[in-house]
What we know:
Blueprint: H1 9-22, E1 30-35, H2 52-68, E2 75-78, H3 88-98, E3 102-109, E4 119-124, H4 131-149, E5 153-159, H5 162-167, E6 173-180, H6 184-191, H7 193-205
Parallel strand pairs: 1-2, 1-3, 3-6, 4-5
Antiparallel strand pairs: 4-6
Helix pairs in contact: 1-7, 2-7, 4-7
Amino acid sequence: MKKVLKNVSFVILVLKMCIVFGQEPTAQKRILIDVGHGGKDAGAIGINGIQEKEVVLDIANAILNLNNQLDKPLDIYLTRYKDTLISLSDRTKLAKTLKADLFVSLHCNHSDNPNARGIEVYALRKQERYSKESVFAGYKIERALCKTIGYESRGMKFANFQVLRETTEYCPAILMELGFLSNVDEAQYLMRKENVLAIALSILKKL
Length: 207
Ligand SMILES: [Zn+2]
């Protein structure tokens, strides 16, 4: 059965209120959001020409902007703020330098099968430290996105990605594939500003 992504603009206000009223008065966590690809590395190219490097930067910037509107914003950093290419090892070194509490790498998926759709979240396979914390962090965000956005869940998965391997020494780390740019519905969905905002808000709420 084909799932339809939700039109979420009306949900945004409700979510915002949840963030404002649902916050606990504890020390604010430091989050490093890794904005995938950049510069000459465009990442996946969508069926509609949309580029992965731009989609993830838009989502990350939306998370930053929304966070700045909170009474008690989280301490959020991005690995890139512009269309620049950062090496994978520099991205992970930043997690160490900042003493981040959580590393979240943002990506979009691509498949030769145009019907492939949905969201995937990865944690490191065979993780010595922060294994439970990583899986829990990924699961929470994935659930929220499926519920709010209507993404089909492809589940929490395990892989040996470099950004996860090098970061999990310092903090919990996850990599998210936020929909398939090779799928018409999801690529079109990600083109719209209000949808980017809704995705950003769902993620921020669970950081
Ligand atoms: Zn990617």
